[in-house]
Fold this sequence. Notes:
Keywords: Lyase. Belongs to the DSD1 family. The chain is of the alpha/beta class. The strands form two sheets. Strands 1, 10, 11, 12, 13, 14, 15, 16 and 17 form a nine-stranded mixed beta sheet that branches. An eight-stranded parallel beta barrel has the order 2-3-4-5-6-7-8-9, surrounded by six helices. It has helices at 25-39, 50-53, 56-64, 75-83, 98-107, 120-133, 156-167, 189-212, 228-233, 250-253, 337-341; strands at residues 20-24, 45-49, 69-72, 88-94, 112-117, 137-142, 171-177, 219-222, 239-240, 265-273, 279-282, 297-298, 304-309, 314-318, 329-333, 346-351, 354-360. It has two domains: 13-21 and 260-360, Lyase, Ornithine Decarboxylase, Chain A, domain 1; 44-247, Alanine racemase (TIM Barrel, Alpha-Beta Barrel). Helices cover 30% and strands 24% of the residues. The two termini are 17 Å apart.
Amino acid sequence: MLQPPPAEPGMMEEEVDTPALILDLDAFEANLDAMAALLAPTGVKLRAHAKTHKSAVIARLQMARGAVGQCVQKVAEAEALAWGGVPDILVSNQVVGAAKLARLAALARIAEVAVCADDPLQVVEIAAAAEAAGVRIPVLVEIDCGASRCGVEPGPEAVALAERIAASPHLRFGGLQSYHGSAQHKRTPGEREAAIAHAAEVTRRTVEQLRQRGLDCPIVGGGGTGTFALEAASGVYTEIQAGSYAFMDADYARNEAPPPFRQSLFVLSTVMSRAIPGVAVLDAGHKAVAVDSGLPLVHGRPGLRYVSASDEHGKLLVEDGAAPALGDKLRLVPGHCDPTVDRYDWYVGVRQGRVECLWPIAARGAMA
C-alpha cells in the first residue's frame, strides 16, 4: 500500500517524519552531470540502471542529460518506467514464464523494450509471446564474462544463440549483454582492472565471431558504477549500465580509489531512546536500511557508530564527542543503496536543508 509522504515541500529537513529516504538534490544532480561528462569523450552511451532508483522521474532526468535509455531487471520495473514515459528499456536479465513474457510483449507496443537470453528455450518462448502480441522484440545474448551467474559461454555458443534469435521473424538480434557484477566491489584497482580486462577480451572475441557470421551488435552492454571507466576505455562496449553512481553507498566507499561521485542518498532517522549510557537507539533498523553489504554509516558524526540492527531499531555507540539527544535527526549512509530504496514509497528531495520535492518510487517492490 502506498504510504503518505513523510514531508511537504517547503518544510525543513529536521521536520521530516522518519524513517525517510532523503535525496540531497545538489549532490544527486552533480552525480548525473559528472557521469555525462566522463562518458562524453569516450563516445560510449549511458543506459542507466533503474534497478537502483525505480523511478520514471529519475530516469527522465538521466535521459535529459544524454542517457539513451534505461536498464531494469524485472518486467514490473519495465512497466513502471514505460507507463511513466520512458521510451527505451532493456530488461538486462532473463524473463521466463508465459505470463511475464506476455506483459513484456504488451509493453513493446508503447516503448522499445529489449530482453536478454542465455538459453534456446528462452528464445522460443520470447518469440511465441512476440508473435501473439504482433510485435518484434530485440533480444540480446548474455555471455558469462567472469561473474559465473547468468550467460552462455562466450564464443561459438553465444554465436549459435544469436543466429537462432536472428532467424526468428518475431525477434531481432539486439547485441551482447556482458556485465561483470562482482567486479564492481573488488576492493583494489588492480583486481577491478584484471576482471574487466578479461571481460572485455572475451566480449571482443565474441563480437568478432558474430561479425564473421554476418551479425552486427547494435548494443554491447555492461559496466557498472565500480568499473564503468574501464569498460568505456576498452573499445568494446557501446553502452554502460551504471546505476548506483546517482546515489552511492557505504560499500562503494570501501573500494580503494572509489568511484568519483558524491553521496546523495540517505536514510533520515530519529533518536528514539537514550536509556543506556553511551548508547543511542534510532528508529531505523532492518526495515529501514539494507544491511546485506554492511551496516550504515552515520553521516557527519564520526563519533557515532551504528553497531547493530533489529527490525525497528538501530543501535549506535557513542565513541567520541557529544551524544545525540532524544529526538535528534541523523542521516544514515546505507551500506547498499538499491535494496534500501526498495523499502520506501517516496524520495524526499532536499536542497540546502529544505524539502524541495517528493518523487514516488513507482517500481518499489517490482519483483515479477
